[in-house]
Amino acid sequence: MARRTQVALVDDLDGSPATSSHVLALDGHVVELDLSPANAARLAAAVAPFLEAGRTSRRPRTAAPLREASVIRTWAARQGMAVTATGRIPHEVLRAYVEAQARTGGTGGTGGDGADRPGPATATADPAR
To answer: What is the per-residue pLDDT for 61?
Structure first.
């Protein structure tokens, strides 16, 4: 017997279908939100002035915290990268994630199938934090 399990993201604000997950960090408080395209755009517009005015953090990081590891693993899988379900995320994957965040303004870029859709984003200067 075959079994297929599907996970559907639901927008945490209004209950509509979500297409992306976003990690926000402020003053040590980290949250992850699943958002629809409309609410993701609202979030991006709300934090844009702060991200533009801020400076890039150059603090070295060696590992992703557990709260963000699942977001990074999901992003990497969408990109066709091999990642394990547990353990350390390879440095190459973290670097690619950070570069994608920088290139796309925090939207995460495209999925592995080339379809342009939002991916995980973070309001911190260093997405691997």
So the answer is: 52
Q: Which pair of tokens denotes residue 83?
A: 């990642």
State the Cα torsion 48-117-83-32 to the nearest 10°.
Answer: 50
Provide the b/e sequence for 60-76 (b: ≥16 CB within 10 Å). eeeebeeebbebbbbbb
Express each pLDDT in 35-57 by its tens digit. Answer: 999 999 999 999 999 989 988 87
- Among 78, 80, 87, residue whose Cα is nearest residue 108: 78
Helices (H), the chain: 37-53, 66-78, 91-104
CB proximity list for 21: less than 8 A, separation 6 or greater: 9, 32, 33, 34, 35, 71, 74, 119, 120
At residue 92, the pLDDT reads 86
pTM of the model: 0.45
Nearest-angstrom CA–CA distance, 32 and 114:
24
Stretch 73-88: mean pLDDT: 88
Residue 24: beta bridge partners? Answer: 31
